[in-house]
User: Fold these one by one.
Assistant:
Number 1:
Amino acid sequence: MAQVQSPAPATVGKADHERFMRRVIEMAKQTSEAGAGGPFSALIVKDGKVVGEGVNRVIAEKDPTWHGEVSAIRDACKNLGTHDLTGCVMYTAGESCPMCYASAWWARIGAIYFAATFEDARQYGNFDDSVINDALKLPNEQRKVPAYQILHEEILPLWKAFGANPNRARY
Amino acid sequence: MAQVQSPAPATVGKADHERFMRRVIEMAKQTSEAGAGGPFSALIVKDGKVVGEGVNRVIAEKDPTWHGEVSAIRDACKNLGTHDLTGCVMYTAGESCPMCYASAWWARIGAIYFAATFEDARQYGNFDDSVINDALKLPNEQRKVPAYQILHEEILPLWKAFGANPNRARY
């Protein structure tokens, strides 16, 4: 995929980053105190304006993918009517897990700002995001959640047809 | 987080894996031919029964997180009424990107079966999932989508309060 690098606008300075992050921290405080999930939250900002927001609601929604960043990205895409968030910056209460980092990557977000580290989440919340990063460095079959390949020969024709279709989905 | 390893039930054999994967491949064919997204799809199976399914609808839903696996995990959680898919196996048309792999990890899925590789998706679809894996191996600030830490000192009190709260969300 042709990835377009989209840095924060030059007009966004340190004071703006801190202002958005303080709002993110307040959101994290509210969702965690409500018992909806961990103290995680995120904002998506474009041209200095908030275009999407989300908080962790894993418990409340019974959805393990309902992290603040994924939720904020989905909200921004809905608000802007596109799957492409080129030109946007993400502010997140905590260092993004691989799910959220890759979500931002697919959304073509240009840069991420975070406050708490994996180590904070591990030390105070018993969330261990870094082990997933470590697992991703291993071959598929050797991971704690192992992945095994089967039926490769049966899906190859589908990919070849997809590649040969000039009207295929591109994104 | 206390991760519970949940291997595929011993009663599930090669024929079952192939049967589920053939259904996944058919789903991938349908969604890609409809132009809804790439040829990606997934099933979640528990005790030999399908409990969730999803296809890639990034284009159709204008949502970059709408990959087959994430969609199937959300569907299974909704159907089973829990964020915890311990004891489930995931079948996916393509090797999972970090977003989808981490989604499965958070959902406590026990094992993953896939048919197409990152290389197939790159060669025939111009999707390059492996570069995200590569980015995750780099320090935050050196990634193509860089992540910068700010206001650490302002979020620490929130984490300390969370850690000290006996009624905090646990998952």
Number 2:
Amino acid sequence: MAKKVGFIGLGMMGNPMSKNLLKAGFEMIVWNRTVSKMKELVDLGATPAGSAKDVAQKTEVVITMLTGSADVQQVILEKNGVIEGLRPGSVVIDMSTISPSASRDVATEVARSGANMLDAPVSGSVGTAVMGALTIMVGGDEEVFEAQRDVLAAMGKNIFYMGTHGLGSYVKLVANSIMGTYMAVIAEAMCLGAKAGVPTEKMVEALKNTGASSRVLDLKSPLVLEGNYKAQFMLKLLFKDLGLALDTAASDTVPLPIIGLVRQYYAQALVEGRGDNDFSAIAAMIEKRAGTKLSKP
Amino acid sequence: MAKKVGFIGLGMMGNPMSKNLLKAGFEMIVWNRTVSKMKELVDLGATPAGSAKDVAQKTEVVITMLTGSADVQQVILEKNGVIEGLRPGSVVIDMSTISPSASRDVATEVARSGANMLDAPVSGSVGTAVMGALTIMVGGDEEVFEAQRDVLAAMGKNIFYMGTHGLGSYVKLVANSIMGTYMAVIAEAMCLGAKAGVPTEKMVEALKNTGASSRVLDLKSPLVLEGNYKAQFMLKLLFKDLGLALDTAASDTVPLPIIGLVRQYYAQALVEGRGDNDFSAIAAMIEKRAGTKLSKP
């Protein structure tokens, strides 16, 4: 019999992720705070639930894919939340990017119901989610993780078990902090060449063959060259993640001077109204500050 | 008849580069300030010269591969330097990483002799130089560049013409500034995960499948995991390059706040005596500051 999987949070990422679970043959129960977002999934064969609690009552595995720590706490812990419907042996897989400490707090509450939680944040864009090729970093009990590999494999290609509760979230914050810094320093350094007269397109081609080579350079430089900042991963969400990294680092006494500075950069971009753009729009702010242009004429 | 190529600066990079020119069939005249470094090349069939001037008198193309701006100015412009031996139509190819302004000054002097200069700094390690697979970024007159493609192709696989004099040097500084920042932020961010208990090796494997993916992560994380900082590219040389980038940016009024901060990191590593290590030794400084360990136990 097919595993019954609940999915809460049918946004830009949750929509394709839940579709891939349906495609993989899981029996899906879905719920979304904005009810209209359930329609597409229901049309494809998912069963709509009446609340987060309802999802948990009807399934053995509940996935949450929400924006921030507060959303996850609300949907799981508050009235009519997941926790009220959990049964012993149920598993909650939170795939949102939230703070490791919030994730651990929720895991503790979930454990009180005799259920288990995994933090399993994802790396990849909407396109990667559609292809079922996300990278998933998992924290929690290893046997619980192994028992849910089939569910995770429907959404992701590269699945990594990191260790105890919260460590999936930690690695996600590490990844996004590095990615955000790559983007900012690529733009910053390229302004030096652009202002001197190096054609940006030629510069990018050369940089791809140097120590500046990175996935960010490959994927984002074409957008920067076009000045096309349509969101794949919104700048304001990266700003949120950098904040989570810095807050966590402050609790753990880990100095992060570069990431601290980089977050100020993104803060300035927010002030300039670029929050709903792709995070690569940091390049538009940086080129303006430098008095040059990275996009092709 | 084979082109006569002079090579000055037979150090860690110059040695394999000049060997590849010999292998490609060029008639080689070599010179090095430390005379003993010529022996190996002479044994392989190169002709030793008595001075930089002597090299220029006997060749049509003179390559310089030296440490810094002062070395290049000395070897090319001072007494018994290249400039005294240049003939109209000769070409000087400086492959050192020096400041774009110094490079342009030397190019102007070289032009006064009726000769031409290209700035053609390289990206890649000693291993890449041995394989003749360097990336070469070229500034100068385009026809002069095209006429020397055969010479450059003996040393490099990816050869990019960037534009007028100095622009090759600019792009090299952009590349190394980005690379040095990648390395520092990878180490900084990974300390957040490591201190929380994520095994570094697992973290690296996951990060390679996220937006943190980069050539630096691929090539340097194994060294960081081993705590093996034997120099492939010395930290003190990266520190020099970051200084060149910042000085150039100051002249050109380009703000580089991230790269400025990153250079302070490398300055601290120099104070700690890590200058002769590989630049990835910045990780050893950062993990110590964070009170954690990135290398495997």
Number 3:
Amino acid sequence: MIHVFKGLKNVEKYFLINILYIERRMYEEYKQVIVVRSDLKMSKGKLAVQVAHASVDAVLKAINDKEWSTWVNKWVEQGMKKIVVRVENEERLLDIYNKCVSNKLPCSIIRDAGRTELPPGTLTAVGIGPAPSDLIDMISGDLPLL
Amino acid sequence: MIHVFKGLKNVEKYFLINILYIERRMYEEYKQVIVVRSDLKMSKGKLAVQVAHASVDAVLKAINDKEWSTWVNKWVEQGMKKIVVRVENEERLLDIYNKCVSNKLPCSIIRDAGRTELPPGTLTAVGIGPAPSDLIDMISGDLPLL
């Protein structure tokens, strides 16, 4: 990228940097990542419900915030990209959730009522976003797909 | 229930009926049902994403409608009950969706972009509600759990 600046005046560099920044903002990708625990024995229906809980709850939190609601709108325009990844235990799930809170990302942690397959109060999933993909990747980018 | 009316005057019957009606409205159960096709070969991650797509999309539609948005609020207050059920093919999925539209229930049908496991344009899931449980059960009450 640096080679395009060669031979440009400072004012030209300034405008070019601004155009690149605006373009990046315009084409910024938004997504939602849902993190689930792989150490729990859940049927595929139960798992799907936990993922949907985390997804909807994070969206509802985001809708009620001024900045986050613009992220929701852009995410909907782009087709509501969702990705499901996994962590190996509750400690890692809580760690991810706390990082989201610290980084001021819309997020939600799901505690199962435990009426069916799991003990009451089991933490099952975390929903992150909708948010810019690069902000989410800083937290969950290294987690494997479910 | 009828025996409680015995010996009551008409005006007393009238008040009793109204109290029962109000009580029923106060304790009305709200839920969301997500219908998925059982004839598609989807990984559990793919399936969970389709369920979340249908769930979020139906919620977003409901939020933007005056009557439906009160249903969303009540559903959230009650803990956002979600149930995943199945149909055997696309025809049955479309049939369910059309019944929801005819019955003026918030609903959403999910068409997969087909970038990964499915052919492009595959219909995968229908989200019904949030809505009063008895209205949803009139459409999907006989469908088996996933």
Number 4:
Amino acid sequence: MLFKKIFSKNNLHALVHNSDTKLGHLFALFIQALIILSLITFSLETLPNLSTTQRHSLHLIETVIVILFTLEYLLRIYVADKRLSYIFSFYGFIDLMAILPFYIASGLDLRTVRLFRLFRLLRIFKLFKYSKALQRFKRAFILVKEEMLLFGFVALIMLYLSSVGIYYFENAAQPEQFQSVFHSLWWALTTLTTVGYGDMYPITVGGKVFTFFVLMVGLGIVAVPTGLIATALSQTRAEEK
Amino acid sequence: MLFKKIFSKNNLHALVHNSDTKLGHLFALFIQALIILSLITFSLETLPNLSTTQRHSLHLIETVIVILFTLEYLLRIYVADKRLSYIFSFYGFIDLMAILPFYIASGLDLRTVRLFRLFRLLRIFKLFKYSKALQRFKRAFILVKEEMLLFGFVALIMLYLSSVGIYYFENAAQPEQFQSVFHSLWWALTTLTTVGYGDMYPITVGGKVFTFFVLMVGLGIVAVPTGLIATALSQTRAEEK
Amino acid sequence: MLFKKIFSKNNLHALVHNSDTKLGHLFALFIQALIILSLITFSLETLPNLSTTQRHSLHLIETVIVILFTLEYLLRIYVADKRLSYIFSFYGFIDLMAILPFYIASGLDLRTVRLFRLFRLLRIFKLFKYSKALQRFKRAFILVKEEMLLFGFVALIMLYLSSVGIYYFENAAQPEQFQSVFHSLWWALTTLTTVGYGDMYPITVGGKVFTFFVLMVGLGIVAVPTGLIATALSQTRAEEK
Amino acid sequence: MLFKKIFSKNNLHALVHNSDTKLGHLFALFIQALIILSLITFSLETLPNLSTTQRHSLHLIETVIVILFTLEYLLRIYVADKRLSYIFSFYGFIDLMAILPFYIASGLDLRTVRLFRLFRLLRIFKLFKYSKALQRFKRAFILVKEEMLLFGFVALIMLYLSSVGIYYFENAAQPEQFQSVFHSLWWALTTLTTVGYGDMYPITVGGKVFTFFVLMVGLGIVAVPTGLIATALSQTRAEEK
């Protein structure tokens, strides 16, 4: 009877969904730790030159994680008020995707799908009551949505025009590097975002003068959206008070 | 009679100019799709190693696009209230430039002019009612025009002084790279915009110390205008309410 | 008697703690100059190809600095109202760490610990009455703390997802460069911060298209916190008035 | 008599100092054009592989410019109310420095001093009535002076600590690149400003992890001042109304 009482559906529901209770908080923390552990094993598996022992250890940890995630998935189905709506919900799909590949194929490498598990990390915000900051960000984004779209569109045109321009200036001098407008797009992207890997850069006088004008006009267009979000966030924060 | 009624000048005028009506909206969308298609074919034509079949296909698409743009141009002249003022207007010139090169020369490569067609993309904003965002941007720009000019001018002086300085520090050590003040300008541009391709960089102690001071002072001058536009945009948005 | 009066505990306390008095100000400036001198000698010692004479000179300066710091430490203990609480305080620990390594080991190279002496530089702000600016910054930081944490967390997820993505696109083409997700993290960091050393960059079409999307989304996430601090600082400044 | 009237001291004074009159405006424009021409000749002279004819032409233009600047200097002395105070004023010194090197030494290359002529370009702002924007910038700068100093100081400490850190991580692996803390400072500068030339970058795991933390903390410190100036400028603009 005691066992039944402790593991009653109500208590389990609170465990899974109510992170305000101590046990629920621990459960949420455990799942989050498990997610991070699974990301680390996932990353470690990509390392070359792993010994057979190391591969076996990683596979073992992997198996344990999947079993625990499976138990969590079954538990969530069990405690759900409307089971079908959970299974076909966004998080229900994510939870299934985190375990399904392991069962379907050990030979096939479908582990990428487990990445979707990442979305569960968003629940961390609920724990730390970051929902306020998230909603403020959402309101700030709505506030600047139009400008963002406008700048995004203008940035795309800017990137395209820069590619076409540099193609005309550099194609003759560097036919290997600036083969086509599509190849030049890579230059436009790395230049206007100021990444500047150095794998492509103009060497003709015309190309350099063109880059001067592209940067003078383009830097603002690419960088302004960042400033827009920042000022919108401070504005929504001010409006709250 | 019915044909005449449907294709009356009034109806055609609404088709071309009034994107609020369903047909006008479809017409605008069709022209925009055509513009994007012509940009893609234009870009594809720059690809090296195209087969003869591919070149022929692209030329065919090209021809169809120009014919459609020609029909649109003639339609716009026909429905215009003041035909001459349309022909000599900005968009009239753009519309002509989008088709003229094709007729003038098949042998000559004047296709670049078609790029002006890009300006028509700005009409997209009207469709999505982005005019409000555009006008806000315009007011924000007027608000910061003086500072922008001031910073633009100071940025040019900064670029020039940096070039002269680095020329004196690096010319002896890297005569190939820092050949003249003009060559050094390219270094100043890629450094102050933080692109940093890595094709030119100081190697002397003096040049490195000089770069330190240039970056400390220069970064602000080059980056401030972006912040100015962002804050001006948020201010104009606040004033609207 | 006069000697006793001049070197009374009260006077010495004022000397050490009260930088408003002339002597106290001079004492503070002297200690700061000593800190900067010790940083310069520390840096000079890392230079290769030093002659034996130069090494001896640096060691001599080093010894004099440590003796002076020791005297200062003993003086601070002597004038402290609660000696133990000073010794076990943060600055007491720093003061000890600045001299201890020298006495413990001449052979062992523990000089790194002396770096903690750097924290004393923070006292400079008190002299120039920058405490107001520092406190404003502190209030501004508290104002945006939640957003900063949110963006910091999202930035980490962004970095991780970018690494995993580029690993899948580039691993086959550049197995040496993009060996694992961990190696790709270095690429993600230098790209999203727009540093772009050029030691790692995508060469496949897929990798370049992926980089386009990573930069479009990622730049904002990494750069917004800077804008947040700036606007929060201007807000707290406005609130003060 | 007419000659005397036209070239009276009053008229000449108006010519030199009052750019509101038509002649004064033309005089100012002429001097500015001359300054820009002298900058261009100065830059052209740095070009290698100039023919003897080209060198002679540049020297001729140079001589004419100096003669015109000398006439301007003498004119300014003649019309000055207090001649000595003009000669020993900032602009008086600049005006002298623009011509003196030419007379002192034709053999010696003291042409660098002519650079000070650049400061005269600042007068352009007066013409276009940009004084309002300049004064707003000045007020904005005063508003954020304390934070700027604070951030400047923290940025220097950040640069130094980053250099020391990377030196310890990379010195063993790349003794040629990271020779000393001073050599590492160059890396810290190009990394924290996100220039990233690619001439120095960490290759050890420790160095890369260290760079991660340096960038996470450092980017904000280096970039915040820009945001500060931008928000301060928008604030001062708002206060004006």
